[in-house]
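anyone seen this seq b4? input:
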Amino acid sequence: HFTSFILPDDRPAYDEAHATLRVGAGRLEASYRIRRPDGHVREMLECGEVYFDAEGRQDLHMGVVIDVTDARHHHRQLAVESQVLESICLN
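predicted toks r here
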């Protein structure tokens, strides 16, 4: 059900991050956007570990999905402001 919230443009990257999981490479990191039921788009970061059973099937998936929308917004805003200041100082 959760994947139905992922924006269609971000779904291939999400699917690829999960498809590449295999025994010995169980670290997962995926970044994608979701549309909440209220219509707002949020940026998410998923990090975790996947464990496999003796037959190589996913046995346990432990991790966290974090809403990083505000942090990324502030990061982009600081980058723009830094460019403005740099252009002022160089002129």
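The helical segments are 11-19, 69-90. The chain is about 35% helix and 35% strand. kinda curious what u guys think
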